[in-house]
Write a structure and sequence with these properties.
It is built from 12 helices and 34 strands. It is an alpha+beta fold.
Length: 632
């Protein structure tokens, strides 16, 4: 296929160009190609530009213009005649040409044109008669009545085009601008071309196909060409594909094409080769082309009774479910949900969000507080603390504690991510710290993990930094009340994170008397035990015991009057070095000075005179200096 384009008013240039293919439908035996528009444009009062693409199809080739699938369309703001001419420039006898004609006549009155309509006002359309002889050489031409008062900027062009039926939707804007439609459809408009095997005919029934027969697929058949001479190939019913290649027609799944293939008997569609079946379902039989029930009355009665019981069970389930929902809402309100909704830093989890975590296989810890589970929520690894029922504070106090904890953001403090309030006693969701506690690392059963002095010094320094932040830099002063190795968690890099606010007390100034003494007595300040007065110096004392465990790798115990603490204090009182008390793994000669300094800090923290103890900020600064000195 090729197109030829006449250009300008004084001469015609003919150039054969390939035609761009849009798509091919083997089943319809047609192809769609882009075909250019013919245009007639005035460029000055005396000059015109005329473009008329001529379509030239191979003589006696497989392609012919589709008579039924294309229309002639003319567009123009003046009186415009458009013509479809066949065999143009191929003969001197115009009687040999076929002319299809339509007229667009608004004589410059653009306001009369209507979008979408091609009824002769700005746009006209002509349909080819069905008995038209298919063409191989043709062109649309424009013959406009010109605007006597030439104005280039106002409707200078008229157009003609052969286009697929119903494709073009007229717009009044197509009347405006120089070569406006040509630019709008720069690739052309769709034109439908029929194709067929033009040499030969279909073999008669029972005859062998002739040599060169094109219908090669087993499941295909031959039919007359839709236009012109020859034949086309189609896939047999229940098959689809390309009949012109071996095995091109493949069985289709009729059950996916409900509109075309349906089970009118009420059965279920079952695909098979070369068709489909509609067997009746269980308990049904095909009677007179319809699926009917074969279920006996007695069985129906039994089923009805069972169904009644199921309905009763369902109603009971719904009632129980509603009660559970009411109970869940009551828990939510009782546990301070309305208050926590106002907090931006805390996430409130639903019970269903944590259900998959609260399994016995996920338990990683148990204690007086309750159980700790490990799992994932929203692809984040978390630790969920499920307290013992009734072990937490009351509604508003609990909500306020959670809000305060959620505002504590420090690299050495375990982050509280959220809580679940839809249970009797709220559950807390923390970030998960992978290495376990300092107590596990120091005193765990089996092979103890080696810890050099630098790691221990870093654990002490960063733990002190976290406690100092809680005492003096947080929004509200926070006293831990239970500082011990079990509440110092370590990540994969041995970075410490202070944990367990479940039994901590978050208190503001002037409200420092605890109702009951809480925490592990092994690490507890003797002054606190006597007075019940919890202060930041109480945490300092506990931290002193923690330092001694860190450098000795021996566990402090309350039952034997804390021999670890007394051993270090006795050595200090006598002015002796505590070398024998240090962990032999780190008690090398080059480490003794740092270990003595750590002992000195610990002893100061353990002073029974509260006023003589350093603050946690001072402890943190001294440990930071020691840590830095090791790196010089």
């Amino acid at each position: 296929m090729a197109g030829a384009t006449p250009v300008a008013s004084d001469n015609i240039t003919v150039e054969l160009l390939p035609v761009e293919l849009m798509d091919v439908s083997v089943g319809k035996a047609e192809a769609r190609v882009y075909y250019g528009l013919s245009s007639y444009c005035r460029t000055s009062p005396v000059d015109r530009t005329i473009k008329s693409p001529i379509m030239v199809l191979e003589e006696k080739g497989p392609f012919l213009l589709s008579v039924t699938r294309n229309v002639l369309v003319g567009v123009g703001a003046w009186r415009v005649e458009v013509m479809f001419v066949s065999d143009l420039a191929m003969t001197d006898n115009m009687s040999d040409t076929f002319i299809l004609y339509c007229l667009s006549d608004i004589n410059g009155h653009v306001q009369y044109a209507t979008n979408g309509s091609c009824g002769g006002r700005g746009c006209c359309e002509a349909v080819m008669p069905p008995d038209t002889v298919p063409q191989t050489r043709f062109a649309p031409l424009v013959n406009p009545q010109e605007d006597p008062d030439y104005r280039k900027e106002i409707n200078p062009c008229s157009y003609a085009m052969l286009v697929e039926k119903s494709w073009y939707n007229f717009s009044t804007t197509d009347l405006s601008g120089y070569e406006g439609m040509s630019n709008k459809f720069s690739r052309g408009v769709p034109l439908v071309i029929d194709f067929a095997i033009r040499t030969g005919t279909c073999p008669a029934a029972g005859q062998q196909p002739p040599k060169g027969y094109a219908c090669l697929s087993r499941n295909s058949y031959c039919g007359n060409a839709t236009s012109g001479e020859g034949y086309i190939c189609k896939c047999a019913e229940h098959y689809d594909g390309n009949p012109y290649v071996p095995n091109g027609c493949q069985d289709i799944d009729e059950c996916k094409l409900h509109e075309k293939y349906n089970c009118s008997n009420g059965g279920t569609c079952k695909n098979r080769l070369n068709g489909y079946d509609c067997p009746c379902g269980p308990g049904m039989t095909n009677k007179g082309g319809k699926c009917s029930e074969i279920f006996p009355t007695v069985a129906k009665a039994v089923v009805g009774a069972v169904a009644g019981l199921l309905v009763l069970a369902l109603v009971s389930f719904i009632i129980i479910l509603r009660k559970e929902r009411r109970k869940t809402k009551e828990f939510y309100r009782k546990n301070g949900g309305p208050t926590l909704e106002k907090a931006k830093m805390i996430k409130i989890y639903k019970k269903e969000d944590l259900k998959h975590i609260l399994m016995s296989s996920n338990v990683i810890g148990k204690g007086g507080f309750g159980e700790v589970f490990k799992g994932f929520v929203d692809k984040v690894e978390v630790a969920v603390k499920k307290p013992i029922t009734g072990n937490l504070l009351e509604s508003e106090q609990f909500a306020n504690e959670v809000i305060i904890q959620s505002q504590v953001i420090h690299r050495n403090i375990v982050r509280l991510l959220g809580c679940c309030l839809e249970v009797d006693t709220p559950m807390l969701v923390y970030e998960f710290i992978s290495k376990g506690s300092m107590d596990d690392i120091l005193h765990g059963e089996g092979n103890k993990e080696p810890l050099n002095l630098d790691v221990r010094l870093r654990i002490a320094a960063e733990s002190a930094h976290g406690l100092a932040y809680m005492h003096s830099q947080a929004h509200i002063k926070i006293l831990h009340g239970d500082v011990k190795p079990a509440n110092i968690l370590l990540d994969e890099n041995f970075a410490p994170k202070i944990s367990d606010f479940g039994i901590s007390r978050l208190i503001a100034r002037d409200k420092e008397h605890a109702a009951t003494v809480i925490g592990d007595r092994t690490y507890m300040d003797p002054v606190y035990l006597q007075t019940g007065l919890l202060t930041e110096k109480s945490d300092v004392y506990s931290f002193g015991v923690l330092i001694l465990e860190l450098i000795s790798r021996k566990r402090a115990t309350y039952s034997d009057n804390n021999s670890l603490v007394s051993s270090f204090l006795d050595a200090h009182k006598k002015g002796e070095k505590a070398t024998k008390l240090f962990d032999k793994d780190i008690a090398s000669k080059e480490n003794l000075e740092v270990l003595d300094n750590l002992t000195e800090i610990a002893v100061e923290c353990l002073n029974l005179d509260v006023d003589q103890r350093p603050s946690m900020t001072e402890v943190a600064e001294r440990l930071l200096i020691l840590n830095r000195s090791r790196k010089l």
